[in-house]
Amino acid sequence: MTPPADLSRLCVHTITTKPWPLEQAAREYARAGVRGITVWREALEGRDPERAGELLRSHGLSIVSLCRGGFFAHVDEAARRQALVDNRAAIEQAAALGAPMLVLVCGAAPGQPLERSREQIRAGIEAILPYAEEHGLRLAIEPLHPMYSDSRSAINTLAQATDLALAIGSEALGVAVDVYHVWWDPMLESEIARCGSAAKLFAFHVCDWKTPTNDLLLDRGLPGEGCIEVRRIRGWMERAGFSGYNEVEIFSETHWASEQEHFLNQIVQSYRAHV
């Protein structure tokens, strides 16, 4: 059965329906008319990624990306070396899965200046990029909201992410735009246009910022539950040349505790109404 046209670019991240194992997520996403899936590495634990990819495609799902690599910044040199090992393993997983892209959450270290973390992030990306290119993969730098700049990412604006991608200068390196992290930026529209003009818009993640929020990490909302103008930002993305999937990525203890089939139906409804 062909899903309605307005769902043709709907992708859901496996972390969004965290309680479901990958096999159940594949069945239920297909049933609901979801066309794309982004797989989190946790969902592959104990599974052969090549067989997992075959399973997902057998349900008619396009594998949009693998989440996540990155976390390059560490005070300890041994930890930085281990991060490169882990990222190469993630690249191998993505290639075996059949994902065309690995999303990078770049990391930060509380014990060092942000500038040093950013130097380590660039060095880390440059170290793994040839390996990604060998495997036919693209890497997408995801800027994170400044509230995470102490420990999760020292790349906090779309401008920083675009500048880094341009400085490294590979066609295989671009940016993932997540509305949760960038919606507040007064330069967002112009930076999306700049990123698009450089052909660096690789991914678009959607959810909502609830007001008040109960947890800065684990209380994201469905599009329409909060204050982000998701559809407006989607328009900016498309005017800048983006034609990929709109990826629903929600971390929510509230939604994870709910009945997941009902939650997935809510995702589809909110996507139609607000994305």
Notes on the structure:
By secondary structure, this protein is an alpha/beta fold. Helices cover 43% and strands 15% of the residues. It has ten helices and eight strands. The protein has an eight-stranded parallel barrel, surrounded by eight helices. Helix 2 packs across helix 3. The longest helix is centred in the first third of the chain and has 21 residues, at 77-97. The radius of gyration is 18 Å and the shape is globular.
What's the quick description here?
By secondary structure, the chain is an alpha/beta fold.
**Could you report the average pLDDT, rounded to the nearest whole number?**
97
Order of helices and strands: EHEHEHEHEHEHHEHEHH
Largest sheet entry: 8 strands, parallel, barrel
First and last CA, distance: 23 Å
Alpha-beta classification: alpha/beta
User: Low-confidence stretches at least 5 residues in length (pLDDT < 50)?
Assistant: 1-5
Order of strands across the biggest sheet? Answer: 1-2-3-4-5-6-7-8
Rg calculated over all Cα atoms: 18 Å
Characteristic key phrases:
disordered N terminus; 275 residues; 10 helices; alpha/beta
